[in-house]
Amino acid sequence: MARVAWRNRDQWPYAWRVLSQGVCDGCALGTTGLRDWTLDGIHLCMVRLELLRLNTMPALDPERLADVSRLEGLSSRDLRELGRIPEPMVRRRGDKGFRVVSWDEACEAAAGAIRATTPERFAVYLTSRGILNEHYYVAQKAARAMGTNHVDNSARLCHAASTVAMKRTLGYGATTCSYRDWIGTDLIVLFGSNIANNQPVTMKYLYEARLRGTKVAVVNTYFEPGLRRYWVPSVPESAIFGTRFADEWFAVDTGGDLAFLCGVLKALVAAGGVDGAFVERATSGFAEARRQMESLGWEGLEKDSGTTRAEMERFAGTIAGARNGILVWSMGLTQHVHGVQTIEALVNVGLARGWVGREKVGLMPIRGHSGVQGGAEVGCAPGLEEPQSTRFAEVWGFPCPAFKGLTAAEMVDAAWRGALDVFWIVGGNFLETLPDPAAAAVAMRRLRTRIHQDVVVTSMMLPPSEETVVLFPATTRYE
Ligand code: SF4
Predict the structure, then answer these.
(1) Which atom of ligand 1 is nearest to the CA of 36?
(2) Residue with the nearest Cα to atom 5 of ligand 1?
(3) Does the structure show a pLDDT above 90 at 20?
(4) Model confidence pTM above 0.70
(5) How far apart are the CA of 313 and the centre of ligand 1, in A?
(6) Cα–Cα distance between 413 and 11 in angstroms, integer?
(7) pLDDT-derived band of residue 70, with 50, 70 and 90 as boundaries?
């Protein structure tokens, strides 16, 4: 914390305003100022403090970008340390790097490139800790006004599977409960999550929950050290000695959660652990799900999950023994080809226990950025379904494009195949978030024009394109 204070020493009054009044840009836990709505006391973590400099740093010297070969090989942290992008910049074919241009010239470079292509060959992608729902809404509206449905946001890379599966099964794409429900529930299960690192203040909630008797189980390929023992700074005893958090660990193979959850539902049915009254009153299709689970053999489930029948039965026993429980999950479950099916299986287990629709129970996808859920909800996703499409067209006064839009990863794939001319990218870095950075870099080169909009320089901005790369400086959320 002393280091953070030192790094922000030139902007302390502003940094203090960001901390004391701003909505945290660190993760989706969500806090305004230094308080939250779950517990009394200070809400602050190092993720937020480390990000503070992004909001207070001075501008970079544009000369540093005049020859980008000097920047190649620098880490993201080093590139960020260069400072903020202060003015619009353009790099034309054959240039070694970027030069500062007027806003008019940069806008014309972007607009000219979009005019020169067709909507089917133009894509827009947004992600950033700083982007707000309003930005996502306006960006997707602008993209559709320009005729393209190729518009997407970073939830694609994390929780799109949750949104789809939850909408299909529950009719609603977000968490069904609040963090307040953690405190006082009987059991919290963390699937494929490492909240100690990624949503640090939740450990404070978990600490409080454990004081009231909540048990914690972990289902993951790896028993994260932060979930075994964690040091909650605001609790003196925990800050000194640490606290044991997880009571149980259920080890599965990578991608094995789907088979694990199917096995758990099968075991739950066999052991009479289903909340029959809830299932009867609030669900449909249970008999079919039950038949399907019963038809699955234990041998196949063991092979696909990477664990044993006994472990699946032990987990089923653990959840059957809890009247109230909350299932929490992250990217360990969603980032697989069968991510949607895995979340559907998880929802089935939750519904079988009746853990929806009352206090101290819930199904909770836990997210990274604070804007990604909203981004998807306000329409920043490829293709609008009816009745939204008609509704938007009425409100906006222009028709929404009819062709099927590309998802984020499909956009990069299309660029790689030469099927896109112009790619407008707000925030993010495909060279660090997609599984094949070399292919992503090739895709970036094959575009005729790339338009980047960001606060700082990233490695994704450095490859040349066929014709032009435009950099627009962005504001932070606090500006
Ligand atoms: S836990 Fe998340 S919302 Fe809370 S301070 Fe840390 S980064 Fe911000």
Answers:
(1) 4
(2) 44
(3) yes
(4) yes
(5) 36
(6) 42
(7) very high
